[in-house]
Design goal:
By secondary structure, the chain is mostly beta strands. The chain has one domain. The chain has one helix and twelve strands; from the N terminus they run αββββββββββββ. The strands form two sheets. Strands 3, 4, 5, 6, 7, 8, 9, 10, 11 and 12 form a ten-stranded antiparallel beta sheet that branches. A two-stranded antiparallel ribbon has the order 1-2. The chain is globular, with a radius of gyration of 16 Å.
């Protein structure tokens, strides 16, 4: 994993802890965790733990529809996982070209104490090998909580985070 991916995943995991991001069906979808200040050291601390990213123990197979939003733009993606690697095709309205744009990116399955982590890399225009000049690769964390609820979040390589709607397709 390169430094840029490690930084993005760290931001993603911290974002989940700080913002308590859950799927749309969950209550309090973006409640902030309380921050406290230590008056003796004048530093902020919080109630989250930074998770380490490791190789996944088990492969993941299947297809999912993912929906998330960044700065008011809705992204619709289709994820296909075939073991430890997969592909994500994302469509969104690009205001720079004033039309729908579709991106393909490769996904790598990892694991953390917060859940499964999918690291995106090599975003290209769909169906080509041409890199998109400004698309930041997507990274996701997915986890099933003890009560059966799903936690799903994304932070891209530019550290923009969002909750994620997921629908299992097959």
């Amino acid at each position: 994993m390169n430094l840029k991916q490690a930084t993005s995943v760290l931001v993603l995991v911290v974002g989940i802890g700080v913002f308590d991001i859950k799927s749309v069906g969950a209550k309090n979808a973006s409640t902030k965790a309380p921050l406290t200040t230590d008056s003796t050291q004048n530093t902020a601390s919080s109630s989250f733990t930074i998770a380490q990213i490791t190789e996944a123990s088990y492969p993941l197979y299947g297809s999912w529809k993912l929906t998330f939003s960044v700065n008011g733009t809705v992204y619709k993606g289709y994820l296909i996982m075939k073991g430890y690697y997969g592909a994500l095709r994302v469509s969104y309205f690009d205001p720079n070209v004033r039309k729908k744009t579709t991106i393909d990116q490769t996904m790598k399955l990892m694991s953390s104490s917060r859940g499964l982590v999918l690291l995106g890399y090599n975003p290209v225009y769909a169906g080509t090998s041409i890199s998109h000049p400004s698309y930041a690769a997507d990274n996701f964390v997915f986890a099933v909580q003890p009560d059966g609820s799903l936690v799903a979040a994304t932070c891209d390589d530019e550290k923009r985070c969002s909750s994620v709607d997921m629908e299992f397709l097959k």
